Amino acid sequence: MQIDLTNTNILVTGASRGIGRAIAQALAKSGARVAVHYNSNREEAEALARQIGGGSQAFGADLGTGQGPLELWKAVEESFGSVEVLVNNAGVAISSDIHKDDTEWLHDWGHTMMVNLNASALLCKKAIAHFQQRGGGRIITISSRAAFRGDTADYMAYAASKGGLVALSRSIARAFGKQGIKAFTVAPGFTRTDMAQDFMDQYGEAYALNDIALSQLTEPADIAPTIVFLASGLADHATGCTIDINAGSYVH
Q1: Active-site residues: which are they?
Q2: What does each C-alpha distance from 142 to 10, 97, 116, 165, 235 come to in angstroms?
Q3: Where is coiled-coil annotated (predicted)?
Q4: Nearest CA-CA partner of 192 in 223, 213, 155
Q5: Taking the CA of residue 249 as centre, how many other CA atoms within 13 Å lie in the half-sphere pointing to its CB?
Q6: How far is Cα 29 from Cα 162, in angstroms, rounded to an integer?
Q7: pLDDT band, very low/low/confident/very high, at 197 (cuts 50, 70, 90)
Q8: Nearest-5° angle of CA 130, CA 36, CA 127?
Q9: Would residue 252 count as lying in a domain?
Q10: Does residue 102 lie in a domain region?
Q11: Which residues contact 93 (CB under 8 A, 6 or more apart)?
Q12: Range of the domain at 214
């Protein structure tokens, strides 16, 4: 099966590294023009945009602020003219001990929610308005297995934020489907990324391996093809779904 995303403009948040980078590469390989969002990794994002070609561009924005997502959407829309697919991938995972000072713990919680959930919600809001004017579009959101099975005590905020993304995506699918707007959630398990390295440094790689059914940790490239498939329109009747890519974590 050949997937052709020519003439499709796709915004991928957090695309300078990890899962987002693999997604951007896979989408571009299928012909899409990708808006490569980054927070601080400007050089990596610009190099990636040049590498994948097809008119792809890098766009910087701090999703940890209320204005960041709005400025990002405006910049991409003005530069590309239209956006057909939004991929909410950017996220943070902050280890925050439950016995931490209350003010510091709440700060960690709030920043996690801002980047992982609030920023995605704002981008979805802008995308929905844009899609309504254009007769439809697709939103693909990267959640986590943590949304369903929880996480360790120090990553409760991460799990809660990812659970919120699932509810957000399902609500969009229900509320706007008849306007041609589809929304999907992909829930990876533990994936070998720079962000996950903090967890492995803390708990060890064996901890992650013992929690899955396969003998290798999931790589970003294992997740990207599913996003290409969802972006293609070939799975529109799966709107509202969550696709688990967690190496058998639930059955292990």
Answers
A1: 158
A2: 15, 25, 10, 8, 16
A3: none
A4: 223
A5: 21
A6: 28
A7: confident
A8: 15
A9: no
A10: yes
A11: 112, 155, 158, 195, 196, 198, 199
A12: 9-245
Q: Do 173 and 128 contact (CB within 8 A), yes or no?
A: no
Cα–Cα distance, 137 to 131 (Å, whole number): 5
* CATH number, position 127: 3.40.50.720
As a whole number of angstroms, the distance between CA 15 and CA 119 comes to 15
With 0-12 CB in 10 A as exposed, 13-18 as middle and 19+ as buried, what is 97?
exposed
Task: Supply φ then ψ for residue 217, to 5 degrees.
Answer: -65, 150
Q: How far apart are CA 71 and CA 4, in angstroms?
A: 29
Domain count for the chain, please give it: 1
User: Average pLDDT, stretch 70-97?
Assistant: 97
Q: Which two tokens stand for residue 66?
A: 């209320």
CA distance linking residue 199 with residue 121, whole number of Å: 26
Q: Answer whether residue 4 is part of any domain.
A: no
Helices and strands, counts by H and E, the chain: 10, 7
List pLDDT tens digits, range 109-163. 999 999 999 999 999 999 999 999 999 999 999 999 999 999 999 999 999 999 9
Answer whether 37's CB lies under 8 Å from 48's CB.
no
Residue 209 CA to residue 95 CA, distance in Å, equals 20
Query: Which token pair is 166?
Result: 């699932």
The residue to which tokens 């920023």 are assigned? 119
Sign of CA dihedral 107, 112, 117, 118: positive
In a domain, 154, yes or no: yes
Residue 248, classed as helix, strand or coil, is coil
Furthest C-alpha separation in the chain: 54
Residue 32 per-residue DSSP state? -
| Pair of tokens at residue 138 | 């697709």
Q: Quick one: tokens of 105?
A: 């713990």
